């Protein structure tokens, strides 16, 4: 366990990359993220909650069991890890990260990536120390990748068209309806109905009209 109470984001990240455990509790029963939140170091909380070790992703770059091929080509691991660990979850930001990388911005590459994200989501929910936040994040990115695939297949303007759709506001007030519907759809499709986080999101969003 480590203490992020100093609020130094770079040191927090370095310690995580060096293998610091985030789910161990201290003498008062709090994890590192809980201690950081308690003292108001919310940037450190964000870093801890969004951290996903590269080796956990590299697992999918090797054939497992009876598989002859790995589920994730090695060349995609780096670009995918960059998106997984980003703390900016705005759909436009994710779409731009996909567009900026020629290795990712292809239908076949995105298909392999979103399937791996779905597997990670499942593992997060079924492991002993369930991680609903990380599971929801993986599912959310998977949904955006799937929408990227739709635009790559069906639209001449491809990912530019997707980004424009996300940014376009309705005439009367400029509200980005397409973006809102995409986010709500991703929440609705989360496959683990029993998740506390999902129920909280649904309760807070359901009464709000678009």
UniProtKB/TrEMBL annotation:
Gene that encodes it: Ankmy2
Protein name: ANKY2 protein
Annotated InterPro entries: Ankyrin-MYND_dom_contain_2, Ankyrin_rpt-contain_sf
Origin superkingdom: Eukaryota
Organism: Pandion haliaetus
UniProt xrefs under PANTHER family: ANKYRIN REPEAT AND MYND DOMAIN-CONTAINING PROTEIN 2 (PTHR24150:SF8)
């Amino acid at each position: 366990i480590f203490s992020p109470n100093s609020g130094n984001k770079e040191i927090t990240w370095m310690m995580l990359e060096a293998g610091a455990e985030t789910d161990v509790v201290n003498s008062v029963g709090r994890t590192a993220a809980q201690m950081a939140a308690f003292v108001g170091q919310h940037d450190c909380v964000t870093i801890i909650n969004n951290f996903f070790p590269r080796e956990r992703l590299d697992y999918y770059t090797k054939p497992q069991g009876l598989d002859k091929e790995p589920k994730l080509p090695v060349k995609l691991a780096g670009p995918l890890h960059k998106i997984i660990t980003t703390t900016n979850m705005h759909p436009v930001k994710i779409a731009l990260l996909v567009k900026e990388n020629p290795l990712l911005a292809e239908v076949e590459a995105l298909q392999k990536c979103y399937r791996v994200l779905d597997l990670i989501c499942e593992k997060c929910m079924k492991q002993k120390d369930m991680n609903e936040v990380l599971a929801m994040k993986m599912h959310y990115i998977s949904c955006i990748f799937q929408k990227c695939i739709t635009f790559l297949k069906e639209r001449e303007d491809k990912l530019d068209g997707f980004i424009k759709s996300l940014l376009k506001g309705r005439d009367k007030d400029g509200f980005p309806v397409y973006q809102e519907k995409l986010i709500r759809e991703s929440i609705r499709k989360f496959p683990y109905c029993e998740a506390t986080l999902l129920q909280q999101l649904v309760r807070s969003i359901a009464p709000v009209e678009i």
